[in-house]
Amino acid sequence: KILAARDISSVAGYMKSKDCKNVMMMLGAGVSTSAGIPDFRSPETGLYSNLARLNLPHPEAVFEINFFRRNPVPFYTLAHELYPGKFRPTITHSFIRLLAEKGLLHTCFTQNIDTLERRAGVPEEKIIEAHGSFATQRCIDCSETFDDNDMKRHILQKKIARCVSCGGYVKPDIVFFGEALPEIFIRAVPNLRKADLLIVMGTSLTVQPFASLAERVDDSCPRVLINLDHVGSFGSRSDDVALLGKCDEVVRDLCKELGWDDELNQLWDE
Ligand code: OAD
């Protein structure tokens, strides 16, 4: 057992010790809800319970590649609402940057496509966007890439982009259900064995293979869950700590314990 107790001050104590060098993070939509971006599965506020207006056979269809082939309109409608640029990173995103500035962040695995980690100043080489992002796009038929500015215009005008070569539908390089995860993700997974600490934040841990990353760290590696509710297998290992609550609030408390609160506020004010 590494942690003195399963609580926030033991986590902070360990983070300040010389034994904690490589921190890995796993993020989900819950870290961006305070920025105004809905998550997927929260009852009432989550995207999947608010998609009735898009006439989908089932909510996840909006992110299914076979459904998109038949009807790209629901995805484009959603993309218009979720398009990055409209949202400011949260205090939780600033905390991830602070971890990087302290030299503690090894890799930040994120399921989010909102790019708020980069916008908060987390170094790009530390971020693995496991479900892709809106940064690039291509034709779903011939894989020809499509111009960034043209794509932006289409999404902002709610128009469906078509491939200049073959006329197929263009889709941002977001990983849909039924598609493989990016190479960069697959290459980064073995690094989890180097983790001295895993912090999982704002995810229901329901989507594979991402959810299984939490099992990839050594049995001896402390795992911290910061989430509204209990998820995954947290609690099954002796050094699992669940800090339940809103991630912005838990992160503030953790930074107080670490004596990092001024630095956190400075980054957040930038
Ligand atoms: P979910 O919506 O499934 O889960 C979000 C989790 O964050 C839930 O457990 C919430 O209770 C929690 N949460 C919400 N707000 C929070 C807050 N302020 N503080 C702390 N916790 C909070 O979202 P993901 O797990 O990210 O995939 O979903 C995984 C994937 O499913 C997404 O990447 C997306 C989706 O289908 C694709 O689009 C490919």
From TrEMBL:
Binding positions for Zn(2+) per the UniProt entry: C139, C142, C163, C166
GO MF annotation, one: NAD+ binding
Cofactor(s) the protein requires to work: Zn(2+)
Cofactor, how bound (note): Binds 1 zinc ion per subunit.
Region of the whole protein represented: 14 to 283 of 388
GO cellular component annotations of the record: mitochondrion; nucleus
Family, per entry: Belongs to the sirtuin family. Class I subfamily.
Compartment list: Mitochondrion
List of residues binding NAD(+): 29-33, 39-41, 111-114, 203-204, 227-229, 247
EC number: 2.3.1.286
Protein name, as recorded: NAD-dependent protein deacetylase
Positions of the catalytic residues: H131
Keywords for this protein: Metal-binding, Mitochondrion, NAD, Transferase, Zinc
Recorded superkingdom: Eukaryota
Keyword ATP-binding: no
Stretches assigned to the Deacetylase sirtuin-type domain: 1-261
Organism per entry: Hypholoma sublateritium (strain FD-334 SS-4)
Keyword RNA-binding attributed: no
Recorded catalytic activity of this chain's protein: N(6)-acetyl-L-lysyl-[protein] + NAD(+) + H2O = 2''-O-acetyl-ADP-D-ribose + nicotinamide + L-lysyl-[protein]
